[in-house]
Amino acid sequence: MTKRFAVILAGGKGERFWPLSTAEHPKQFLSLIGEKNLLAQAVERLEGVVDTSCIYVITSSELAEVARRSAPELPPENIIGEPVGRDTAAAIALGAALVARQDPEGVMAVLTADHIIGDLECFRSTLRDAMDLAHSENLLLTIGVKPSFPSTGYGYIQTGEHLADAPAGTVFDRAKRFVEKPDAVTAQQYLKEGSYYWNSGMFIWSAASITRAFQAFRPPLYEMICALNAAADRRDFDQTFERIYEGLEKISIDYAVMERAENVGMARGVFAWDDVGSWPALDNHFTHDDAGNVVIGDGVTLEASDNIIYSKDRLTAVIGLSDVMVVQADGVTLVCPKDQAQQIKELVQRLRQDARYARLT
Amino acid sequence: MTKRFAVILAGGKGERFWPLSTAEHPKQFLSLIGEKNLLAQAVERLEGVVDTSCIYVITSSELAEVARRSAPELPPENIIGEPVGRDTAAAIALGAALVARQDPEGVMAVLTADHIIGDLECFRSTLRDAMDLAHSENLLLTIGVKPSFPSTGYGYIQTGEHLADAPAGTVFDRAKRFVEKPDAVTAQQYLKEGSYYWNSGMFIWSAASITRAFQAFRPPLYEMICALNAAADRRDFDQTFERIYEGLEKISIDYAVMERAENVGMARGVFAWDDVGSWPALDNHFTHDDAGNVVIGDGVTLEASDNIIYSKDRLTAVIGLSDVMVVQADGVTLVCPKDQAQQIKELVQRLRQDARYARLT
Fold it and tell me: Are strands B264-269 and B171-179 parallel, antiparallel or unpaired?
């Protein structure tokens, strides 16, 4: 049996869950849902699928230490800090080099640290089936999640011909087309049509397959893998890595490879999945009071409905407002309508220009 | 010249400025506007008009100590804690008894601790003129404030025949009618009509005149004044006071006396005046940013206009909301549309039923 690896992408700048998430403590290190933080949950989810010695975490160099503390069961050297962020293609190429160093025949799952996944056993068997198929058929696999509602917040994958049914039950189709986040009407059509799946951003392939794909479509990433392999046991590995990495372009794996390669398949994920992209996503993970408010911590409302109150260290009182979120963090309160949550990022970037707010962002 | 006294009413339960104001620290002890708290400002305003030994403060027994600390220039015994709140008529009768004990011929101004007054010299000369006239003509005077906008938040006084022009310039009219807070259309008519003034709740009369008015219209209050005079130097003064006070009805001075007596006049107040009744009133006392937001303390906004942010100990960020106030106090955050500020009282009363929130309300 081929050796299984996982590469967990745990970058992220802590903007969308501000003020709880900050540059020093981004979303993947928050315990928003569940007791463990999201990275720890991502590692725990691999139990029984990937040995801890074969799990790599790629994060920014600033966050490597907090990642090590969050996942103490992993060998510390398996947690790699990128000197600079270069989007997913570069991080995945780095992961492929690390996997190939342990086992050139290895098969790897690329996962992200900030997902919430229900039905753990279903998720694990999907991963196992996908790893087996990717290895035996030289496929670049992604996991599509069966949509439960017409989300406009996710990209979609349109499936093509049927590829395989794994013994444990996972169904694989050819991935025909990757599409961007749709508008509401289009999302409704996708849901009705039935052949569209949410693009989860999880991938499964052998280190050799993805390396060949980089060779074909993104030579600089292929060259990095070769250079890192060549430098693997040399003293100048870190310098080589940093020098090459900084010179890379920023490009996502979808653009770099998935939309170009021919051997792309999709596993149908039928487990509950949420990328918890922003505060309003919490609505799906907590119980609501009779007026539709989600109160996490200490909140009171009067003639207020469908709000999200996150208030663990103080009392938050909301009167007469609807569809607003109030988030309390250490030293900061954010008040924002749910449907304007995407603006938080802009505000945080503005605040980061101001030295007074350095500690708070 | 007759001796001048002032009785400052400083009750108040700390509901309308919650969470900054609490039962233990109500509005009159807040420095909402200006550096000194409102009671201290009320005392300071009397400089040059009333000697500090002749200024009395009537508050609740729970608040007497904080009142003494707020007004250290007053003799401590001039700050009286009511055993129970019995509305303004009872507090004023108590004040009249205290004044009469020092000087039965004394003339007194009844003021409240929670007003903001501009044009201090104008205010002081209005007071002096009113004290002189009340004494010489046996009048029960109130101060009406010339409306600067069609407020629906104040009661009004309709003026009748002209009574007097004081040498220092204050104009006095007969107070023909006291009217409740009007609706917007009526308030507009009042403003246009010109003979309506805001009922400021400030009164000027001699101790003897108001005592006679109580004798005529509210005998129990007259009897209290007599009993307190009789007990003035007795050891059982405090017990007598408490026993009688608890038995009194709750009634405002407007209902008890002003709307019944014949000898009621009004001084035209032409100074800036605001009773700072609730959070939205702060709009009138602070500068606004380009989007109309008032930010007191540390606040940032993004696509948000006409909000009030009161945030002295933390950063408050408001995105995409208008006409909302966000108030930060120790351990509590309140978020409420400006036009629903009257609901704060209800929320506070509800929270006070809950032992968990005792410290916060």
Answer: antiparallel
Q: Which amino acid is at A231?
A: A
On chain B, the residues whose CB falls within 8 A of the CB of A319 are: 334-337, 340, 343-344, 347
Measured distance CA(B37)–CA(B30) in Å, rounded: 5
The pLDDT tens digits of the residues spanning B241-285 come to 999 999 999 999 999 999 999 999 999 999 999 888 788 888 888
CB contact under 8 A, A319 and B360: no
Instruction: Report yes or no: A271 and A117 within 8 Å, Cβ to Cβ.
Output: yes
Please classify residue A262 by burial: count the beta carbons closer than 10 Å to its beta carbon, then call 0-12 exposed, 13-18 middle and 19+ buried.
exposed
Query: What is the rounded CA–CA span in Å between residue A289 and residue A298?
Result: 13
ipTM of the complex: 0.83
Domain boundaries, chain B: 4-274, 279-360
Whether A67 contacts A98, CB under 8 Å: no
Q: Is residue A213 exposed (0-12), middle (13-18) or buried (19+ Cβ within 10 Å)?
A: buried
Residue A271 — very low, low, confident or very high, per pLDDT cuts 50/70/90? very high
Report the residue from A302, A314, A344 with minimal CB separation from B343: A302
Q: What is the least distance, in Å, from the CA of B349 to any CA of chain A?
A: 12
Q: How far apart are CA B197 and CA B267, in angstroms?
A: 10
d(CA A118, CA A198): 15
Which DSSP string corresponds to B192-240?
HHS-EEEEEEEEEEEHHHHHHHHHHH-HHHHHHHHHHHHHTTSTTHHHH
Strands (E), chain A: 4-9, 55-60, 79-82, 107-112, 116-117, 140-145, 156-165, 171-179, 196-206, 264-269, 273-274, 294-302, 308-319, 324-329, 332-337
Please list, in sequence order, all residues whose beta carbon lies within 8 angstroms of the beta carbon of residue A24, skipping any fewer than 6 positions away: A14, A62, A63, A66
Q: What's the token pair of residue A131?
A: 């790893």
Pick B335's closest partner by Cβ from A314, A318, A340.
A318
- Nearest-Cα distance to chain B for A303, in Å, is 9
| Calpha distance B172→B167 (Å, rounded) | 12
Tell me the three state secondary structure of residue B4: strand
Interchain contact, B332 vs A311, CB within 8 Å: no
Give yes or no for a contact between A178 and A165, defined as CB atoms under 8 angstroms apart.
Answer: no
- Cβ contact A83:A242 at 8 Å: yes
Interface A–B counts its CB contacts (< 8 A) at 106
- Name the token pair of B214: 């109580």
CB B304 within 8 A of CB B335: no
User: Which CATH architecture is the domain A4-274 placed in?
Assistant: Alpha-Beta Complex (3.90)
Number of residues that make up chain A: 361
Chain B hits for A303, CB-CB cut-off 8 Å, are 340, 343
Mean of per-residue pLDDT scores for chain A: 93
- Lowest average pLDDT, out of A231-240, A248-257, B130-139, B196-205, goes to A231-240
Tokens of B231: 């007990």
